[in-house]
Specification:
Elements: E1 2-6, E2 12-16, H1 24-27, E3 40-41, H2 43-49, E4 51-57, E5 60-66, E6 75-80, E7 83-87, H3 95-103, E8 109-111, H4 121-128, E9 132-135, E10 149-152, E11 156-160, E12 163-167, E13 176-180, E14 186-188, E15 194-195, E16 202-203, H5 216-226, E17 233-235, E18 242-243, H6 247-262
Parallel strand pairs: 7-8, 8-9, 9-10, 14-17
Antiparallel strand pairs: 1-2, 1-3, 4-5, 5-6, 6-7, 11-12, 12-13, 13-14, 15-16, 17-18
Helix pairs in contact: 5-6
């Protein structure tokens, strides 16, 4: 028996005699099955030629796998009382990583933005004996059920110690962001809000790998969800996707630009001609 891992998205499945026939997360049009087909690995195989590194990311500590694996996101260790909350997750967990996290106070909880980053969450929760907070409307995407998974409902979940989960939707119906009230405020957004190379704006998509845009109403809903919260810094899902200042203004003007782009109101963008009848 082994717990097989999808190589394309990094999701770990329950114990089985052989690999699953398919990965439902990759079959969904917000992800993809590679042209070469579905492939599988295990934690032991992954750990043989990959490792995790921890390094500063803004005011936090980032945790990511090298070389990059699957989608390639990095997680963040967020101070949570005398311990930490792991924001988003990576697949690989080995003794070296666990010891490094324990030296920094361990984990009191895990929270994840959306199903593409569920990855090895149950492995992490069992190792640190902590709960996983996921939004209930995305429950169907949990492929390895476990008692550690706690599905929350509504639009806001106060975790304590200045941390609040905020449902923005968008990429997935339960798309979640984490607000940290420390200092001028920080918003950890996964890719519900996408930090892009031009740091004067951010982006929004329904499917990033397949380049399917998000409808305008969904983008306005994301903006409305974060409007009550003060935040100056923004953290995306990958290394160096960090906006250190002015983030709330950047999100607001990006929503406006996105809407104008969909309406064909930006320079160089025009509406397609009306269909002839």
């Amino acid at each position: 028996m082994d717990r097989f891992i999808c190589v394309a998205c990094g999701t770990q499945f329950p114990d089985s005699e052989g690999p699953p026939r398919e990965c439902p997360i990759c079959l969904d049009p917000r992800q993809y099955v590679p042209a070469a087909g579905q492939r599988w690995t295990t934690l032991a195989e992954l750990g043989a030629d990959h490792a995790n590194e921890l390094r500063p990311e803004g005011t936090l500590v980032g945790l990511g796998t090298v070389p990059a694996f699957a989608i390639g996101q990095r997680a963040l260790l967020v101070p949570f009382g005398d311990s930490n909350l792991l924001w988003d997750c990576v697949t690989l967990l080995d003794d070296r990583t666990a010891q490094a996290v324990e030296r920094r106070g361990g984990l009191a909880a895990i929270a994840i933005s959306h199903p593409h980053y569920y990855s090895g969450m149950v492995e992490w929760a069992r190792r640190f004996d902590c709960p996983i907070h996921l939004h209930a409307v995305d429950a169907e995407w949990v492929v390895r059920p476990d008692a550690a998974v706690r599905h929350w409902e509504g639009d806001v979940l106060e975790l304590g110690h200045g941390l609040t989960l905020v449902r923005g939707g968008g990429h997935f119906p339960g798309g979640t962001m984490l607000h940290r009230a420390e200092g001028a405020g920080e918003l950890l957004c996964g890719d519900i809000i996408q930090v892009i190379p031009d740091r004067t704006h951010v982006g929004f998509m329904w499917s990033y790998p397949n380049l399917v845009p998000l409808r305008e109403s969904a983008v306005h809903a994301i903006a409305a969800a974060v409007e009550p919260f003060e935040f100056d810094a923004l953290y995306g899902a990958w290394w160096e996707t960090h906006v250190p200042g002015g983030a709330k203004r950047i999100v607001a003007r990006s929503v406006d630009r996105y809407a104008r782009a969909l309406r064909g109101e930006l320079p160089g963008i025009s509406r397609p001609p009306a269909a002839r009848t």
